[in-house]
């Protein structure tokens, strides 16, 4: 047997493989090494707070919202994908999301979003105001309520264009429920001439308007509105409810004519 004892420390000689290995790069967010992960997430905010990302601050990156309580959250920019996990009693607005928005393990929340795909799992008691290019999917969730996307702001049309979304292609009510045993979704009540979010807007004595915790000065500077005449996404009620209103049909051949038609019908 050999002697395992030695008089001094063993000198470690690096192998050729170790010498050739490049140094590890610091973790970054996305493909841009200058992006910091913490700039693209709101995490574990437990006190009621206003959390905002204004136009131009996300620029098509993915975004994560997790573990927030009682917060009003505004992502008013293009996103690639959005993950919302384990949030309670939050109000969350998400601008055009070019891929999927995942909503998981959330309770008592209001979600306003425009997405390529909307998916939810293990959620309870959530209101969703939605523009979805594809059929929304719900799974193992209860007491979900849906309505059409009901607000606008100055740069929203530009963001829709950047995401290649058509305001006319909205499948918010064509919901596929993977687990109907957990309960069916229900449509939120709507009026023919009013955004369903109108009751949430607060008008102050000086006439200024605020939305949740978003102050009136920010609302004004962003042009954020739930006014029926300002909406770029046509309000639709889906097949589950009927609105008492006069009916007008407009036949258009391109998006420019479609936008003009909306403006004329609302005038």
From TrEMBL:
Residues 22-180 form the C-CAP/cofactor C-like domain. Pfam families: TBCC. The keyword Nucleotide-binding applies. This is C-CAP/cofactor C-like domain-containing protein. It comes from Globisporangium ultimum (strain ATCC 200006 / CBS 805.95 / DAOM BR144). GO terms for cellular component: cilium; periciliary membrane compartment. InterPro entries: C-CAP_CF_C-like, CAP/MinC_C, CAP_C_sf, CARP_motif, Tubulin-bd_cofactor_C_dom, XRP2. The keyword Disulfide bond does not apply. Signal peptide: none annotated.
